[in-house]
Design a protein that fits this description.
alpha/beta; Spore Coat Polysaccharide Biosynthesis Protein SpsA, Chain A; 2 domains; ten-stranded mixed sheet; two-stranded antiparallel sheet; 12 strands
């Protein structure tokens, strides 16, 4: 008899926070009859050893060591394509699950036959809401997110207090129906950082599957803790090539052009604002001239690389 679900965490140098995630997950795995696979993506900080030493005796945690970092999408595909259960829950190592989160998330997926993907309500470490619902990132919807009087019509700025269908959800924790995932070919491995889930959920939507936001499942999320070790505060720049790749796969040339124009104007506005209000630039790197110039370079570059 197969497990109810497989819980999987893709780890890269997560020594500083992975045990917090596992400690919050262990009692919930006992309650739900699930187990955890930690897929170590070529870590060099001893985090895989730490997990094995601390949790091997529980009988619920195993570690798979990959020799190199193959990226999130490729690692997730390897996990899910080999899964012998109906659902896989991918959970970031920089999360802490609140009580009954796992059960509520699994039920939200299992009880809705049209849902291929369910995600929880995300919280910042201080308990404040971390907006996780999004519209697909076509220029028109993105523009609305930056217009104060209109942004309430977007998923990002909507109330996150009721269960509902959504275009896509920030993938800090994802309950995925294996059948649907395999039907659309899994994650597109061209995405290296960010928007892997956006692309996946768009393809699922095109084939009739739906996405469910479940607020009764709550997760504290540090957001990009592992990636921040590589890119620092420049991690925000990784969203640009991710959105451009999404638009190249699913949008038109006009969508790409309008996105570039819109984002260029946004960066120019931030640069001016940062110069006028110096304290803002000190507290938020996105308002510094260096950051804004790099963002514009990435937007119009043929390769969209982000320097480390």
């Amino acid at each position: 008899m197969s497990d109810r679900a497989l819980i999987a965490a893709i780890n890269w140098n997560g020594r500083d926070f992975i045990t917090g995630m596992i400690d919050s997950l262990l009692p919930q795995m006992k309650e739900t009859g699930t187990r955890l696979l930690v897929f170590d993506n070529g870590s060099s900080d001893g985090s895989a050893d730490l997990v094995e030493d601390k949790y091997s005796g529980t009988g619920m945690v195993s570690v798979f060591r990959n020799a190199e970092n193959i990226g999130f999408g490729r690692a997730a595909n390897r996990i899910i394509e080999d899964a012998e259960c109906a659902a896989v829950v991918l959970v970031n190592t920089d999360t802490i699950l609140r009580p009954v989160c796992l059960e509520n998330l699994l039920v939200s997926l299992e009880s809705r036959s049209d849902v291929a993907f369910a995600g929880p309500r995300l919280l910042w470490p201080d308990g404040c809401l971390q907006s996780s619902m999004r519209d697909f990132p076509f220029p028109g919807r993105l523009l609305l997110e930056h217009i104060p009087v209109l942004r309430r019509s977007t998923a990002k700025y909507s109330a996150h207090d009721k269960g509902r269908y959504a275009d896509w959800l920030v993938g800090a924790m994802m309950a995925i129906r294996v059948k649907a995932f395999n039907e659309v070919g899994g994650f597109a491995e061209e995405f290296l950082f960010f928007h892997e889930e956006t692309d996946l959920l768009y393809r699922l939507a095109k084939t009739g599957w739906k996405v469910w936001f479940e607020p009764s499942a709550e997760v504290f999320h540090l957001e990009g803790a592992s990636s921040r070790m590589k890119y620092g505060n420049r991690i925000y720049l990784r969203h640009i090539p991710g959105k451009l790749l999404f638009l190249r796969r699913h949008g038109t040339r006009l969508d790409i052009f309008l996105f570039k124009i819109m984002m260029t104007l946004l960066q120019a506005g931030r640069m001016i604002t940062g110069r006028l209000f110096g304290k803002l630039a000190v507290s938020d790197v996105r308002y510094t001239a260096c950051y804004c110039r790099e963002a514009i370079r990435i937007l119009w570059s043929s390769r969209q690389e982000v320097s480390s």
